[in-house]
């Protein structure tokens, strides 16, 4: 699946293309996509393909096409504080983007069949938390992953506000998936070759919407050949945050508000100076007329005798302008992490400062 939008040179350009094609339609989803670089979830030797709108698979590792993830994120209608279950959580890319929207008081669980993929997802999650420039811009709902077949989830598990299944669901498993939802919840899954959104409107009432045609590998059926018994999957318990953790969230939130107020005051209610753009000279160009006649192509050129002189003068003036503006056209400085700077400037013991920063590397 994929190929719906043009490839990007980097993650931001890929998101721009998804927005232009109306796959990304809301600000929350856009922010989540921009915050997590898709290439970080690729193996090093395959990163050249990270910004193409294509699915990627290597062994058990799999990523859906960006246009599919965009439609899934939009259809889930995510809000802070909700609970989310990702069936076939894979690399954790989608779960991490969801976690940025759910915030610190959400629930973010994933079930993955392959233990090696779980380890890969944990490595990528750790890398994001420790090194990403985006982490401090959000309060993150860290995903928890368990190994097992998502068709064997313990019947006494809690229900969720949002559920996504990343493999093709057979018709006979539709009711099983629906029962994972709370009333008012949303389930998104590939069902009968269509990405489908199902909303639970009552204890036994549902609304179904087909989003787009898709092609997913089907869910793998449980294999009981070894023991003859089902291996129930027990989802993580809904953890209660410690007082210390709640204090960290509150302190970071307060500091962010102070930074925002300072920025607004400094920039005059948020109105920044417009960015400086290099003035572009408009060159006079020769007019060309191309005429198609049967299989022959005829081209004629209308030129002015003074064009060559004018073009030379324009080029020389443009070169001088480039020389004059070169110092200001250097690469911009990397963005400043104001939250980190503020925390490190507090009159607190270093261990407490680093706790507030989640022990992240600079």
Q: Estimate the global geometry from the Cα principal axes.
A: globular
Rounded Rg: 26 Å
- Average pLDDT, rounded to a whole number, is 85
Largest sheet: 7 strands, mixed
The CATH topology of the largest domain is given as Rossmann fold
Which spans of ≥5 residues are poorly predicted at pLDDT below 50?
270-303
Could you say how many structural domains there are in total? 2
Helix content: 25-40%
Order of helices and strands: HHEEHEHEHEEHEEEHEEHHH
DSSP strand tally: 11
Count of separate DSSP helical elements = 10
Which CATH-level-2 architecture of the largest domain?
3-Layer(aba) Sandwich
Helix- and strand-based class? Answer: alpha/beta
Strand order of the largest sheet: 5-4-3-6-7-8-9
Features:
protein-L-isoaspartate (D-aspartate) O-methyltransferase activity, two-stranded antiparallel ribbon, Rossmann fold, 2 domains, PCMD2 protein, single chain, alpha/beta, SAM-dependent_MTases_sf, cytoplasm, about 350 residues
């Amino acid at each position: 699946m994929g190929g719906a939008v043009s490839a990007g040179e980097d993650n931001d350009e890929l998101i721009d293309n998804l927005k232009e094609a109306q796959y990304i339609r809301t600000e929350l989803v856009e922010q989540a996509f921009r915050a997590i670089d898709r290439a970080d979830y690729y193996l090093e030797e395959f990163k050249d393909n990270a910004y193409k709108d294509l699915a990627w698979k290597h062994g058990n590792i799999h990523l859906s096409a960006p246009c599919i993830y965009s439609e899934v994120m939009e259809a889930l209608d995510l809000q802070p504080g909700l609970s989310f279950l990702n069936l076939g959580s894979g690399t954790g890319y989608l779960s991490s983007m969801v976690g940025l929207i759910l915030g610190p008081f959400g629930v973010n669980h994933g079930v993955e069949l392959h233990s090696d993929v779980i380890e890969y997802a944990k490595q990528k999650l750790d890398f994001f938390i420790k090194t990403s420039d985006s982490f401090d811009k959000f309060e993150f709902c860290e995903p928890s992953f368990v190994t097992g077949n998502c068709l064997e989830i313990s019947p006494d598990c809690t229900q969720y506000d949002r559920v996504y299944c990343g493999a093709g669901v057979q018709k006979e498993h539709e009711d099983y998936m629906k029962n994972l939802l709370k009333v008012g919840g949303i389930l998104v899954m590939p069902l009968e070759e269509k990405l489908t959104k199902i909303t639970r409107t009552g204890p036994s009432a549902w609304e179904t919407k087909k989003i787009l045609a898709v092609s997913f590998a089907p869910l793998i059926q449980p294999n009981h050949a070894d023991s003859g018994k089902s291996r129930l999957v027990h989802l993580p318990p809904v953890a209660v945050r410690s007082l210390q953790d709640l204090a960290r969230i509150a302190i970071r939130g307060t500091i962010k508000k102070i930074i925002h107020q300072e920025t607004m005051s400094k920039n005059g209610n948020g109105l920044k100076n417009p960015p400086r753009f290099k003035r572009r000279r408009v060159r006079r160009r020769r007019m060309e007329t191309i005429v198609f006649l049967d299989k022959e192509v005829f081209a004629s050129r209308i030129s002015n005798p003074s064009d060559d002189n004018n073009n030379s003068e324009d080029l020389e003036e443009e070169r001088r302008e480039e020389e004059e503006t070169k110092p200001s056209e250097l690469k911009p400085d990397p963005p400043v992490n104001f939250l980190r700077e503020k925390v490190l400037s507090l009159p607190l013991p270093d261990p407490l400062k680093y706790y507030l920063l989640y022990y992240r590397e600079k």
